[in-house]
Amino acid sequence: MQPLPIPCPAELIPDATSVDDFNAAYWQAKQQHAVFVAVERQGPRWTAKADALTAPQHSIDSLAYDAVREAVIHLIRSRQIRPDSSAGPVYFVLHDVDSEPRARELAAALHAALYGDLELLARAVPPTP
User: Fold this and answer.
1) DSSP count for the chain of H helices, then E strands
2) Is the model's pTM score more than 0.90?
């Protein structure tokens, strides 16, 4: 597996549906000291994941964390993801996304946000007025 760019664009987000693919993607993130990011198929729906434990030297600033938390709350309230989804502070998971492209979009936006680039997150999950 090739090292992923940081932040990782949607089309390169690993599909970690199988245990082997999950382990390979997680191992690669640890080797890169990068925030893990992946999508997983769960039945007909998808999950987007990010985990900062693979990047022990990386810190998530409060502005980025607040933006991610607000986006997750918005997605839950608009029923785009399940209420048991997690907004961190270290592990982020968005359950029950309706399609692979949307899961990839959300995973890429989450990954970019965790590295301080909030633009993709603002486009993927526009703030509520």
Assistant:
1) 4, 4
2) yes
